[in-house]
Design a protein that fits this description.
The structure holds two protein chains of two kinds. Chain A is of the alpha/beta class. Chain A has helices at residues 2-6, 15-41, 58-65, 88-98, 102-113, 127-136; strands at residues 43-47, 79-82, 122-123, 140-145, 154-156. Chain A has a five-stranded mixed sheet with strand order 3-2-4-1-5. Chain B has a 16-stranded antiparallel beta barrel. Classes of the chains: A alpha/beta, B mainly beta.
């Protein structure tokens, strides 16, 4: 249909030009769609809107999700939420944002829980539940794909 | 409402420690509900079956039906009465070849943990109560199957013989963590009284004698460095543990037991595999007994090299070589044998282990492993008969559940 619009019948434009333009447009559109999809799938850290916290360094994020650091720098309690160990978004968050493997996080939590040095994070079943729990739990901190975001939570970037 | 907000006034009392924070429980009725929100209960249960061709380990493993006498049960509870305070306790019930009465639960740890500093650069805190000794990579959770790479930890370092001394201490421990550009540095140092159970009497040949051991003031510390995100971890642990033998008259008399181990630990972790090595030097001394034959002062040495490979998400395969030398001055035990004290191979152990773990569910772990062993250096004193075999094979299977 696009090709027909671009090449009105009876005019002098050669058909190959129309096909080329059409192809380029299609690729551009597809590329845009893929980029949008990729942006939707990007995993971001989210926090309860009441939690007074800015961009945090990766080390701090790692210490928080490893359940070693349990308060914000200004002393507010953090309530960490995680997806199940085998959830693909959990693996992408751990490896991509924290630079640790899920099995390392699991071992760190188990070691703390069973040695009296810390507590386990709260597990949520899905990204929809993650969003809802972080939005409604004081000190809530978690992660989701950008596509699940709404304004009930704040996005917490990593400090460069 | 967060706990910290409802109880802000407490901040001025923070330096007074955890008791002030605990007293803060009463500051607002709403807080009780918040504290209940932080309550966590976890536990585990593991049951193993062992069979060996010779030498009993954890029950009658060398008999035709093998042994089921290796059971571990634990349950813990923790909560935060204040964001900076953690209260945690765990009871442990463990049977390793003894009677069913060994399953009687004991307090594994029970601490009030107060963290007085936590920011983007560092954190500092203190634990008061019965704290788990930081010793090597595995000691603090050595009885929890889910935190072990194998059913049996490398026995050269995590042996049963004087296990009670290594477990936990009643006292005070401080911990600190520094976030550096290249990684994280952690320090834990504690002072307290260790447990000294019957295993120590048996290991030192004092089982059935009139006296018993009591833990005395002891020290333990660990410095651990995690490079970048923990792909490389290195740790140095040291302890100076003392126990006094009392009421030994009439009989061996009174004396003092010293246990001074150093452990160097190294681990490289990749997504699909890990390489782990630990090396320990350990002074064990018994002194003060009127009969000089009861006294000794020896340095033992242990090391192991372990490769673990993860595959199919839920599976892990392990290969390990583990060596124990009871006395560095007599590694082959020949002097011991020449002196008529017993077979040379009771003074060392070389254990080649391969094992497999399958997490068929996040809460269920199944494991099997095989040990080809030369020597009986770490065979628990209570299990060894008069003439153990030099070469023996041990096969174990274990099922574990946790919540």
């Amino acid at each position: 249909m696009l090709a027909r619009v671009l090449t009105p019948t009876g005019r002098g434009h050669p058909a190959w030009l129309a096909k080329l333009i059409c192809g380029v447009l299609a690729i551009a559109l597809l590329g845009h769609a893929i980029a949008a999809l990729a942006a939707d799938e990007e995993v971001v850290m989210i926090a309860n809107p009441q939690l007074a916290i800015d961009a945090i360094p990766r080390d701090t994020a790692r210490a928080i999700f490893a359940m070693r650091q349990r308060t914000t720098p200004n002393g507010e309690a953090i309530h960490v939420m995680v997806l199940p160990d085998d959830h693909p978004v959990h693996a992408r968050f751990a490896k991509g944002l924290l630079d640790v493997y899920p099995h390392q996080l699991r071992l760190a939590w188990d070691r703390m829980v069973f040695s009296g040095t810390g507590q386990a994070p709260e597990r949520v079943a899905s990204q929809a539940e993650m969003l809802q729990q972080v939005a409604t739990t004081p000190g809530g901190l978690g992660y989701i794909e950008r596509g699940y975001l709404d304004d009930s939570v704040q996005v917490l970037p990593l400090a460069e | 409402m967060t706990v910290s907000r409802s109880c802000r006034w407490q901040n001025s009392f923070r330096v007074r420690g955890s008791l002030a924070a605990l007293a803060g429980l009463a500051c607002q009725p709403a807080l009780a509900a918040d504290v209940m929100d932080t309550l966590q209960v976890h536990g585990f249960i593991s049951q193993a079956w062992l069979i060996s061709d010779d030498n009993d380990f954890f029950g009658p493993s060398s008999e035709s039906g093998g042994s089921y006498q290796y059971t571990e049960l634990g349950a813990n509870l923790s909560f935060r009465p204040h964001p900076d305070v953690l209260v945690a306790a765990q009871v442990l019930s463990r049977r390793t070849g003894g009677g069913a009465s060994d399953l009687q639960p004991v307090l594994d740890h029970g601490v009030i943990d107060y963290e007085w500093l936590s920011n983007n650069e560092r954190r500092l805190g203190v634990q008061l109560g019965r704290f788990k000794n930081p010793f090597g990579f595995y000691n603090q959770t050595r009885d929890v199957a889910f935190t072990r790479p194998s059913i049996l930890l490398p026995q050269s370092i995590y042996f049963e013989r004087t296990r009670s001394l290594a477990l936990a201490s009643d006292g005070l421990s401080i911990y600190g963590e520094e976030y550096l550009d290249s990684g994280t540095l952690r320090l834990q140092a504690g002072v307290g009284n260790p447990q000294a159970d019957r295993d120590l009497d048996d290991a030192l040949g004092l089982g059935g004698r009139p006296g018993s051991f009591d833990g005395e003031t002891s020290y333990i510390g660990q410095l651990l460095y995690e490079h970048e995100a923990g792909h490389v971890t290195a740790a140095l642990s040291a302890a100076d543990v003392e126990a006094d033998y009392r009421n030994g008259d009439p009989g061996p008399g009174n004396g003092t037991f010293h246990f001074q181990p150093w452990v160097l630990s190294l681990q490289y972790t990749d997504e699909l595999w890990s390489l782990t090595a630990e090396y320990a030097l350990r002074r064990i001394a018994l002194e003060g007994f009127s009969d000089p034959r009861g006294n000794f002062d020896i340095n033992g040495e242990s090391w192991y090299l372990q490769y673990t490979r993860r595959f199919q998400d839920d599976w892990q395969w392990l290969l390990r070589y583990d060596v124990l030398t009871n006395d560095r001055d007599d590694p082959s035990g020949t002097r011991f044998e020449t002196a008529g004290a017993g077979p040379a191979y009771t003074r060392y152990a070389k254990d080649l282990t391969t094992g497999i773990q399958w997490r068929l569910h996040p809460q269920v772990l199944l494991a099997a492993e095989y040990h080809a062993i030369e020597g009986t250096g770490w065979l628990p004193a209570s299990d060894s008969d008069a003439s153990p075999e030099k070469y023996w094979n041990l096969f174990l299977m274990q099922a574990s559940f946790r919540f």
